[in-house]
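General statements about sequence and structure are easier to judge against a single worked case. In the encoding step, the backbone of a single protein was reduced to a row of integers, each denoting a local shape. The record that follows shows the chain in one-letter code together with its fold in token form.
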Amino acid sequence: MTQAEKELECGGKEKEKERDKEKEQQRGVKRPITPAVIPEATHEQIQTNFVIVINPGSRSVRIGRATDTLPVTVPHVIARRHKQSGQPRHEDPWLIRDGLNKPESNEQRQNGLKMVDQAIWSKKMSNGVRRTPVSAEQARAYNCQIRPAVLDSSSRVKWTNTGHHPPYLVGEEALYVNPSDCYNIHWPIVRGQFNIHSGPGGSMTAVLADLEAIWSHVLQKHLEIPLKDLKHYFCLTIIFFYYRCILLVPNIYNRQHVKEVVNMLLLNMGFSAIIVHQESVCATFGSGLSSACVVDVGDQKTSVCCVEDGVSHRNSRLCLAYGGSDVTRTFFWLLQRAGFPYRDCQLSKRLDCQLLQHLKEIFCHLNQDISGLQDHEFQTRFPEAPALLYQIRLGDEKLQAPMGLFYPTTFGIVGQKMTLLQHRYQGDPEDPHDEHYLLSTQSKQDQSSKSAADRRAGARPVGLEGEMSSQCGFGETSELPRSCGGGVGSGGVMQAEMELGPTQGESLMGAGEAEEPLSGHLSRKTAIMSQFESKALGLDKAILHSIDCCASDETKRKMYSSILIVGGGLMFQGAQEFLLHRIINKMPPSFRRLVDNVEVITRPKDMDPRLIMWKGGAVLACLDTTQEMWIHQTEWQRFGVRMLRERAAFVW
């Protein structure tokens, strides 16, 4: 056959294929759809003053440009005007939480206080003498006689002016809305998660709307960035820049919540690109440490996580459902026992909560050398009331309250989950190739390879090699570490990584369950996790548990030598020495010989510990390696949550 005839034949076949395709389309035959391929991350020049870093917290939100020295810190609260007259008023509580008014609460609180008093007495002061306990009755006899002195007939503190009927107010303005005005008060984040409840403003849609309103207000009023500028580019010497965003999320995060916030920032607010990163990793960036056990003591939750070379060890993550606000509430209870002279103080009033927060910050400490009764004074300044000066005498109350972080039964919380772990992802219809898909397909592959190995073993003579093969569990699975919990081959490794991690899974479950079915393994692990989560771990025990869940002794040694404290919940005098003493006394004896120096870092580079995580986000914006982590608006519109799996710097 000549070359021309070959070309003619090939051309005829191609035309025949095209005719067949047209016929199929006419008959309505559906052809398989090839999934879109996610493009590689583009490398482009980024102007850091066009990068906004957002660190949302339960009580405050910190927002600023990556080039700013300090972020703008605003109370994370919003007041929304009633849509209809006569609508019942709703206010999210500040210091009150579920589990406080149970019959067992007071008994538990008293038992916790006894443990605190025992711990105070057992530790000697620096001069070698034990502290002399001071009873609340000694202070009460003095405080009950105190009457306030009038400083000024007017406190000069005003309620927020709502005469122009704004639809919502944010931050300090929301805190000072008169309770008689027609506004609901909402805190959109509680204990690091969306504040979803059955009351007004408790739906996910309402929470997202509150977050968008608060963050937009900060951008426009404090950073002077009009929202319309987020959706436009700026030309500087023929290079175009768009506003981008770096969002910090908790170590134990809710995937659905993160997805919705990213959607809101990119599509609603109009940022051109976003990076999502974990708070613990950003804390190491901000403090300049390569590895650390990061302890974030916030207002409503405390998270502990071990970070090594920019990677958060998933199996070491813990979230304790208590924080600074629980210390404040406990301090108020102790003040009442000591005859608190401001007798109208109530936890249901937001300005009283603000006062109690301030008193905790100026009075409380963890310095055991401060003992005996001491006299203090404080002022109250409320709208439409005179400014008053109170005298107060306090003893051990100032030390007992912050020690509740180490003895959380003192908080009197009953029937609530107090320790949270990273649970398995429930799945998302937009992300079919998630860990469930990977785990199930891996399990099927393991089963097929195991049956094939069975057939091969049956086909050859039974000898030493066959015995060894059957004992080791067939080939590659014998090389799995004992701590992986076994049972599903390499899928067991994945499952351990997805949930608790190898060491944590072993510490909660034990090992040696190699033949347990996957469903039984998961249900039993869920039950054990639930039992573990019901326990109220003290801060020192949580740190030791987190470090113990690291994979190697070398990693554990690094963590003991660099325990980084961030957040505002442990900013007490003497906190560094107090925590260091408890860690050294409780760490495993085997590590006392291996660890050269146990170090607790509370103010790295003399920075405010409340700002370290935000600062780390700003550092992240300047790194060249972040180029591959940006998720662009157009990519999010096309691929959705798959982009987080592809681009996030942590296992999604």
